[in-house]
C-alpha cells in the first residue's frame, strides 16, 4: 500500500523506533535522579511508541501480504521481521497497560529497566531485518522488483 509512492509502514516505523528508546532513557534518568519529569516523559514516549507501533503493524501486515510468492528469501525475512517486532510491540503494550493502570509517575525499578532494555535489543534486531527488506530486497521502493 502506498500514498503517492510512500508506503505508510515505512513512514510510521520511525516513531516507535525513536520513542521506545527514549522511553528507556527517560525511565533510567527518572530512576537515577528520582525526578518525576523524566518518568512522565518516559510514559508519554512509551504511549506514543506503542500507538504508532500498532498503526505501523497494520500497514506492515498489508505490505507482508503483497510480497510476491516467488520472492521466498524476502518473504522469509519479512516473516521474521513481522514476528519479532509484533512480539516486541506486545511486550511494550503490556508495560504501557501496567503503567497506565498504576500511575504515569511511578518510578521505574531495575527489573523494569532490564525488561525495557531487552525489548529494545529485540526491537533493534527486528528493525535490522526491516532495513534488509528495503535495502537488500528493495521492498517498499519505487523500483520494487
TrEMBL record:
<keyword id="KW-1133">Transmembrane helix</keyword>
<feature type="transmembrane region" description="Helical">
    <location>
        <begin position="77"/>
        <end position="98"/>
    </location>
</feature>
<dbReference type="InterPro" id="IPR019251">
    <property type="entry name" value="DUF2231_TM"/>
</dbReference>
<feature type="transmembrane region" description="Helical">
    <location>
        <begin position="12"/>
        <end position="32"/>
    </location>
</feature>
<feature type="domain" description="DUF2231">
    <location>
        <begin position="6"/>
        <end position="141"/>
    </location>
</feature>
<protein>
    <recommendedName>
        <fullName>DUF2231 domain-containing protein</fullName>
    </recommendedName>
</protein>
<dbReference type="Pfam" id="PF09990">
    <property type="entry name" value="DUF2231"/>
</dbReference>
<feature type="transmembrane region" description="Helical">
    <location>
        <begin position="44"/>
        <end position="65"/>
    </location>
</feature>
<keyword id="KW-0472">Membrane</keyword>
<keyword id="KW-0812">Transmembrane</keyword>
<feature type="transmembrane region" description="Helical">
    <location>
        <begin position="104"/>
        <end position="129"/>
    </location>
</feature>
Amino acid at each position: 500500500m502506498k500514498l503517492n509512492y510512500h508506503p505508510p509502514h515505512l513512514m510510521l516505523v520511525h516513531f516507535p523506533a525513536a520513542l521506545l528508546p527514549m522511553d528507556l532513557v527517560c525511565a533510567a534518568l527518572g530512576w537515577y535522579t528520582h525526578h518525576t519529569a523524566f518518568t512522565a516523559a518516559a510514559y508519554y514516549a512509551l504511549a506514543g511508541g506503542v500507538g504508532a507501533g500498532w498503526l505501523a503493524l497494520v500497514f506492515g501486515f498489508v505490505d507482508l501480504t503483497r510480497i510476491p510468492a516467488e520472492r521466498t528469501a524476502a518473504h522469509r525475512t519479512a516473516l521474521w521481521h513481522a514476528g519479532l517486532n509484533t512480539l516486541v510491540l506486545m511486550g511494550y503494550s503490556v508495560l504501557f497497560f501496567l503503567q497506565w493502570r498504576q500511575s504515569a509517575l511511578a518510578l521505574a525499578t531495575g527489573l523494569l529497566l532490564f525488561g525495557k532494555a531487552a525489548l529494545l535489543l529485540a526491537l533493534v534486531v527486528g528493525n535490522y531485518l526491516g532495513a534488509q527488506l528495503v535495502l537488500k530486497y528493495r521492498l517498499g521502493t519505487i523500483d520494487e522488483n
